[in-house]
Specification:
Blueprint: H1 5-21, H2 27-46, E1 75-78, E2 81-84, H3 88-103, H4 105-128, H5 136-143, H6 163-168, H7 183-201, H8 204-213, H9 215-224, H10 237-254, E3 274-279, H11 286-292, H12 297-303, E4 320-325, H13 327-330
Antiparallel strand pairs: 1-2, 3-4
Length: about 350
Amino acid sequence: MNIRPNRLIHTYNYILYLIINMNKNFIHPVLTTAFTLCVGISLPFLFGNARFDSQQDSVRNDVSHLTASPTVPQEISFAGQTIRFDRYDYRERMDRELLSFTYMHSTTMLSIKRANRYFPIIEPILKECGIPDDFKYLAVIESGLNHLAKSPAGAAGMWQFMQSTGRQYGLEVNQNIDERYHVEKATRAACRYLHDSYERYGNWLSVAAAYNAGQARISSQLQKQMATHAADLWLVEETSRYMFRLLAAKAVLSDPRRYGFILRSDQLYPSIACTTDTVTSGIADLASYAKRKGITYAQLKDFNPWLRSTFLQNRSGRTYVLKLPTREGMYYDPRATKPHDLNWVTR
């Protein structure tokens, strides 16, 4: 915008003259208009790193909004380890992921809203299993905390287990039951995987890399490249970005307002109250079962996405616990929503 300081002063003086000479009945709307105009004129001077120089040519702005680059922190603590960003490659990799989180607006906003519902479930399980709390952000970068997520490669659930890995870590996976979609069970399975990886590497960032690329690949590359930590490896782009994406997820979700995400408490997703039904036999028709319980088939599947068919086959007599949302839970009052983390909201 090509606005000189003297023109700015003249504009303010003109507005003041209008206010003084206007009929009192019109003062309020004029004040409102004046304030809006002043803010609009002043914005180019309030934002940006450079000081205004009337001797320089002004920069033309062809867009109607401002875009700023988030600041890369000097360091970040993850799982008890401090990662500094003074080295060029660490700094620029972190910068890329911060930009991604900051400007993928809808994805990041949804992750913050869902975190209010799922972090209270995930955090106690991580603590019980001896896994650092920061690994809750791994579920953020894996699935955006979407409990129904499925990748083109076949990874499923909030923790994005492949079928073989899910079975290896104790999840039932078949055409009728897929516990990769069971939030609590899949979280415990992820904890077992993370614990095994830490036993091998002794470094939590390397553990994160192994979650993405597999333990065998990370171990092989550490040996071949004679490196100590996975963050120093030359890896495929996805895995190389993965570790810093995890760090960026923590940075943004720990302080969303710093990165431009403004939410109120009533905009977060609350935990939904449920009752449970324990069954040790099969259910021939889940739609009929749901109707008897006073909910829809769709609601039954949403709260129990590990049920992969229209019936529950249970020839072995295993025990399954089904979640049934209460009416009070489903018809919640957003104004009563309490933030799990006060840093997520403005009020």
